[in-house]
Amino acid sequence: MILDSVSLRVAFAAAALTMLILFFFVTYRSTRSRYSLLWVVALALFLSGSAAFLLDGSAAQVWANPSATSCSSRVP
Questions:
Q1: Distances (CA, A) of 12 to 54, 69, 71, 72, 75
Q2: Nearest to 15 by CA among 46, 56, 54
Q3: Model-level pTM?
Q4: Could you list the mean pLDDT of each consecutive 10-residue stretch along the chain, which spans 76 residues?
Q5: 3-state DSSP call for residue 52?
Q6: Could you please report the per-residue DSSP string of 17-38?
Q7: According to the model, what pLDDT value does residue 75 have?
Q8: How far apart are CA 75 and CA 34, in angstroms?
Q9: Which residues lie below 8 Å from residue 44, measured CB to CB, with a gap of 6+?
Q10: Residue 34 class from Cβ within 10 Å (0-12 exposed, 13-18 middle, 19+ buried)?
Q11: Which residues cross the membrane (predicted)?
């Protein structure tokens, strides 16, 4: 069975959202360390980039692809 790229992006976004929630509510809020905050920011940028790439092939592709690329390249 071959999966299309949209379903793979949705699966990666769901995994990243789960990790973002776990890192924020468990690790960052209990320790308040800068290292944990950087992980939360990196996961949030990855999640927003993946969500923007889901708009590929639609009318919003004109602004979604450059913003997704810039979100993905700004991960600390």
A1: 11, 16, 15, 14, 16
A2: 46
A3: 0.69
A4: 76 83 86 85 82 80 85 65
A5: helix
A6: HHHHHHIIIIIIHHH--HHHHH
A7: 57
A8: 15
A9: 20
A10: exposed
A11: 6-28, 35-55
What's the confidence (pLDDT) of residue 76?
58
Q: Specify the length of the chain in residues.
A: 76
The whole-number pLDDT of residue 49 equals 82
End-to-end C-alpha distance for the chain, whole angstroms: 36
Alpha carbon distance 54, 57 (integer Å): 8
Pairwise CA distance, residues 57 & 48, whole Å? 17
- Please give the Cα distance from 32 to 29 (Å, whole number): 6
Q: Tokens 């913003």 appear where?
A: 67
Q: Residue 59: helix, strand or coil by DSSP?
A: coil
